[in-house]
Amino acid sequence: MSEHEKHVRMNGSEFKKGWTGGLPETPCGYGSRVKQTRKQRIIIPEWIERYEIQSLADIGAGDLNWSKLVDFGCAYAAYDLVPRVSGVTRYDLISEALPAADCYMVIWVLNHLPANQCKIAMRKLLKSKARYLIMTHDPRMPKSTDIKPVESLVLRRKAEHIFELRLIRL
Ligand SMILES: C[S@@+](CC[C@H](N)C(=O)[O-])C[C@H]1O[C@@H](n2cnc3c(N)ncnc32)[C@H](O)[C@@H]1O
Asked: Which of 15, 96, 166 to probe ligand 1 with, by most ligand atoms within 8 A of CB?
């Protein structure tokens, strides 16, 4: 097994445990709770309509805790390294080719990857044939992930850090 494969496999088991901040509601962390996602559940369908997005691939979709409540107004498909619920396809953003989509949605995913994987994933998304990328931005992520968005929403502020949801035109 290559070093890269070992790393991906390790991450799979690490991610299986999930995060405690959203328990007992969700294993996907504080930011995935229904209450915490109120603004993004409103704004994402608005962006989809405004930019005439035809299909959304939700990568690192988790347990669909909040996304299952949203009518995105376009075709929707969910992917995750750890398919936690039915309806989510097993998929590894680092080692597999991107599924075809008009827009990728990568929410609270890249911030959990080691810096080298985060850069690989971002480069891949930016080079894709999709027209848009919806992502959470954490200022502590590598510089290459800090792309000027066409739309943004402040999700959270913690000390000097501002966490945003961004719509990026690719
Ligand atoms: C904090 S959760 C966020 C889930 C969801 N996006 C949300 O907003 O509720 C991060 C998810 O990314 C997934 N993930 C981590 N690395 C991944 C990879 N390389 N490819 C696909 N999914 C990955 C994890 O398994 C986990 O379900």
From this structure: 15
